[in-house]
Amino acid sequence: MGAAIGLLAKTKEVPRTRATTESWLVRLALIALALTFLFFFLLIPLVEVFQKAFEKGLGAYWQAIQDPETRSAIRLTLITAGIAVPLNLFFGLVSAWAIAKFEFRGKNLLITLIDLPFSVSPVISGMIYVLLFGTQGLLGPFLVEHDIKIIFTPVAIVLATIFVTFPFVSRELIPLMQAQGREEEEAAMTMGAGGLRTFFKITLPNIKWGLLYGVILCNARAMGEFGAVSVVSGHIRGLTNTMPLQIEILYNEYQFVPAFAVASLLALLALFTLAAKGIVEWRSNKS
Amino acid sequence: MFKKIILGTLLGLALASPGVSSADVSLLNVSYDVTREFYKDYNAKFAGYWREKTGQTVAVQQSHGGSTKQARSVIDGLEADVVTMNQQTDIDAISAIGKLIPADWRRLLPHQSSPYSSTIVFLVRKGNPKGIKDWNDLARSGVSVIIPNPKTSGNGRYSYLGAYGYALKKQGGDDAQARAFVGKVFKNVPVLDTGGRGATTTFIQRGIGDVLLTFESEVLLIQQESGGAKFDVVVPSLSIEADAPVAVVEKYASKHKTQQVAQAYLEYLYQAEGQELIAKHFFRPRDAAVAARYSGRFPKIPLFTVDELFGGWQKAQQTHFADGGVFDQIYEGKKPGTGV
């Protein structure tokens, strides 16, 4: 942001020519177009969600959220994000560090693999687990024999969520770490700091805002994921429904106020995430 | 900062740890889409009955979805103690592919393991401006008929077989005549929705078509919700019986040691209290006394079954709805619509 303002200030000094400026009419039209688009495609639907949720008053909204099945869906969503995000924070940190700071064979393959969850459809991400852990699947007979249940339990939901949110942290960190290079770490090492100490004193402070940014995005997706989770859930009410699944079920059953009430909660979580993201961006530019 | 995050996470987990169910025994009922309201009432009733009988508290968990998809999930390891579907072929699949239910499951409970049924009736616009009274009116030119796609929906299959059976029984026709009749009916279908709810939307919200063919339970529900102000129900002179088969998933039930309560859960559907609830939720009860009490709701008409006229679902599926089957032949030249 600061850099952008600096850039703007600089361009002001350069005399404007016909080639680089547009008439105020064109500028106004473009801004109006962008705002209209935002208004109709983002703001109106968002307002609509809240309006529908509160259609029958605060009491109905509150009652909808008090429903045991809905509360269990909220709980499951929070648990899922609570497990998936820290794990992906760890994996993301480790893999980004390995990729950015070291040279090794198969590095490109690893980068490609990390990107895989972004490139396949979430439905396929879910199907992978059914094919792997379903009773007709690869590990099915073994699991049945040892009475281990994975698919259609919260465990499968957590696994599928970890899979689809895997790339967020490392994707955020790799370019950042690569840009920073490894001179500082090398200097620390030559001064006698150990690996861990170097990491906590040098690497981590350099990347903390990028890391937090990745975590926030990861969390948003973990809470909002629908496709992969839907495939492995089994939709047992009060047990394996997450918030997005619960919204769909309520909507299909013509229970519009409860459906939009849960949707508004999810939207609120997203708005908080956006606010957090804004703060992180602002802080990281400042530092 | 990260310590805080981790601490927060742990705290969240501790607070969020799922509450342990206090019931002595729990069942999982994997069912199809539109039974949610019914089983909500029924589960409460059954829990009371079971506590009185055995002193045990029972908690029944529900999973709802498209019938065929639900069957697939049970095969893949969704450990249902009982399945309550709307199509025999779905339970057959659990039996044949999953080997979770004995092959003779239809003999294990009364009425071919189907505690209630429904049938196909017509919903027309108020005052019945096109004068639709029976199946043969659907084949008239100038009548627009809404039926979901028989290849992808149970309603569509029953509607198709209903028309076919009408031609066989009422018009005394042979297969060739029946095909021609059903062909004429489907010429009048402007759009083939993929599912029953989609077809209902086409007819009600989008205002397309003169007559909607769907399950009686759906039609009665629509009438109740719209207060009967916009539509009339037309009951044809005969129709097809759509049963709703149920079964204990023996392999999972024996694993959970719930065979007894699972069996009782399904048997209770046949008792007066269960049948009463069934009728209340617009499904046709089997019990004669309950049926008599609700006779205003369910007009008595001759119903034929898929077994009688089509040699069972498996055969009907192969002859009529498989790729290149009779439906494809009579519907050729008319591409299925995408629906909504």
Q: Could you give a quick summary of the protein structure above?
A:
Chain A has 287 residues and is mainly α.
What keyword list fits this structure?
heterodimer; A: 287 residues; mainly alpha; MetI-like fold; disordered N terminus; B: 340 residues; alpha/beta; D-Maltodextrin-Binding Protein, domain 2; 2 domains; seven-stranded mixed beta sheet; four-stranded mixed beta sheet; 16 helices; 11 strands; 46% helix; 15% strand; disordered C terminus
What would your notes on this structure say?
The complex is a heterodimer of chains A (287) and B (340). In chain A, helix 10 runs antiparallel to helix 11 (195-224). Chain A is built from 14 helices and no strands. In chain A, 80% of the residues lie in helices and 0% in strands. Chain A is mainly α and 287 residues long. Chain A has one domain (58-286): MetI-like fold (Orthogonal Bundle), CATH 1.10.3720. Chain B is α/β, with parallel strands linked by helices and 340 residues long. Chain B has two domains: 23-115 and 244-270, Periplasmic binding protein-like II (D-Maltodextrin-Binding Protein, domain 2), CATH 3.40.190.10; 117-242 and 298-331, 3-Layer(aba) Sandwich (D-Maltodextrin-Binding Protein, domain 2), CATH 3.40.190.10. Chain B is 46% helix and 15% strand. Chain B has 16 helices and eleven strands. Chain B is globular and about 60 Å long. In chain B, 43% of the residues are buried. At the A-B interface, helix 4 of A face helix 1, strand 2 and helix 3 of B.
